[in-house]
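Colleagues,

For the teaching module next term, I've prepared a clean inverse folding example: a structure given as tokens, and then the sequence designed for it. I'd like students to try predicting residues themselves before seeing the answer, so please don't circulate the second half yet.
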């Protein structure tokens, strides 16, 4: 591993522990926050983590490694945004699921500040993108991104939907609850897909690719994405397999975003997968 790869790994690891500490201080205990709490370093991690990220970012700037500096400040902005969103969620008690999920957009504010102050190549990520470009992923057989989306929906999203439903014995269909919740499931899935793609594939992945190159940049954000969700899991056995699946989905979303030069492709597929999950575990 090159020293720059190690520093990026360090930045992501420190931020991951910090976020887990923040979750533990502002919500139900998870696997990682419980581990930190048992060792009496939960509050310490929540404080030292952002300070360490700030020092690493400043040091990178002083050494004139501006690409590493941007990565450091972008991840720091994300951590601070997570803290603010959790604080607002605890202080503004509203039962509306769309409002509570929308609070996850809070990190976008400091991350956009970093993005526009450092002027990275954003690649028109808020645009639909060009889906006519050839897909670089081998398992999609050189299709363009439009056809690749159809294939991934048919062979990933729909089987996931059926698998989730089988896990609950198709109870949402038997009771008719899925129809009552249909509009909210679709709306929440689109909202969540947009938020996570903007955060991870848009704002976070762009400076990582600028620093590490396309392949490493995509894989680093994907691993972070997978273990980010793993941190929120209460159990090792339950969380680890899903984290591995999310890593590979993060790679797929990442290549889709980079290949089309827009977020829309990844948002659509992400929303379809969220629909599959939420349809079996109806939001309350």
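(Answer key — instructors only)
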């Amino acid at each position: 591993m090159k020293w720059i790869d190690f520093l990026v790994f360090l930045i992501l690891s420190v931020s991951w522990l910090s976020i887990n500490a923040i979750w533990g201080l502002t919500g139900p205990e998870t696997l990682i926050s419980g581990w930190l709490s048992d060792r009496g370093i939960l509050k310490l991690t929540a404080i030292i983590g952002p300070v360490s990220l700030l020092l690493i970012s400043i040091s990178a700037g002083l050494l004139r490694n501006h690409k590493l500096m941007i990565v450091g400040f972008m991840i720091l902005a994300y951590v601070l945004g997570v803290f603010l969103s959790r604080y607002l969620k605890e202080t503004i008690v509203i039962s509306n699921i769309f409002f509570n999920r929308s609070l996850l957009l809070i990190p976008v504010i400091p991350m956009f500040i970093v993005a526009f102050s450092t002027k990275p190549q954003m690649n028109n990520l808020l645009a639909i993108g060009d889906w006519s470009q050839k897909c670089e992923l081998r398992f999609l057989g050189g299709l363009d991104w439009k056809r690749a989306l159809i294939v991934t929906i048919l062979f990933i999203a729909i089987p996931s939907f059926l698998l989730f439903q089988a896990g609950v014995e198709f109870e949402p269909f038997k009771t008719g609850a899925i129809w009552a919740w249909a509009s909210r499931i679709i709306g929440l899935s689109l909202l969540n897909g947009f938020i996570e793609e903007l955060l991870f594939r848009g704002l976070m992945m762009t400076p990582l690719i600028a620093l590490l190159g396309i392949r490493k940049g995509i894989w680093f954000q994907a691993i972070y994405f997978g273990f980010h969700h793993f941190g929120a899991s209460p159990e090792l056995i339950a969380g680890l397999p899903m984290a591995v699946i999310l890593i590979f989905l993060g790679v797929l979303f990442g290549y889709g975003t980079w290949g089309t030069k827009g977020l829309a492709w990844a948002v659509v597929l992400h929303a379809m997968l969220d629909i599959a999950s939420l349809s079996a575990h109806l939001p309350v």
